[in-house]
Specification:
Elements lengths: L1 E5 L5 H16 L5 H11 L2 H6 L7 E9 L2 E12 L2 E9 L8 H15 L4 E7 L5 H7 L3 E7 L10 E8 L1
Parallel strand pairs: 4-5
Antiparallel strand pairs: 1-2, 2-3, 3-4, 5-7, 6-7
Helix pairs in contact: 1-2
């Protein structure tokens, strides 16, 4: 049985592992190996995740999906305006896709963001991400526009697709 709860110190290594492996699985073939490595080192390292476990400013913290105490998924997001929220990160153990874990994580974060006053939720999805795009569209997100990806280095031109839904 999957349990979704706030990430704790004991989950930091699991969050790092599931996000790094999920990122590699998601972006392999659509981003360069250097870009994937750099993003994993920047965003999913132990110290950063430890610092981001709890709510800070407009960040809701990390939440985890646990199967017998093992992290099999992680999500994080925050408020971007008084009535708008964002899903910043959502990754699963690549071997656990298709079990409803991502939906459980998204629903949990959505409930938290709604209690904070969010009426619409946003997410950025890499153009060509044929895992993330169908997931979000099936949950009511609609494509709004394209923009340069947040994590691009100077010589990179990856595109993020911005999606939103009313919640």
């Amino acid at each position: 049985m999957i349990v979704v709860k706030r990430g704790l110190l004991e989950h930091v290594e699991g969050i790092s592992k599931v996000c790094s492996e999920g990122c590699l699985d998601t972006y392999e073939g659509i981003r360069s190996p250097e870009n994937i490595r750099r993003n994993n080192e920047t965003f999913y390292n132990y110290d950063r995740i430890l610092h981001e476990l709890d709510e800070v400013d407009d960040w809701d913290g990390y939440f985890v999906a646990l199967d017998n105490g093992v992290v099999v998924g992680a999500i994080g997001g925050g408020m971007i305006d008084d009535d708008k929220s964002e899903v910043y990160v959502l990754y699963l153990d690549p071997e656990r896709r298709g079990e409803g874990i991502g939906t459980q994580l998204l629903n949990h974060l959505t409930d938290i963001q709604q209690t904070k006053g969010s009426k619409e939720q946003w997410v950025s999805v890499q153009k060509g991400n044929n895992k993330g795009i169908p997931f979000y569209e099936a949950r009511g997100f609609n494509f709004m526009y394209e923009k340069e990806a947040f994590s691009n280095a100077e010589e990179e031109d990856y595109i993020s697709l911005r999606y939103r839904r009313e919640i």
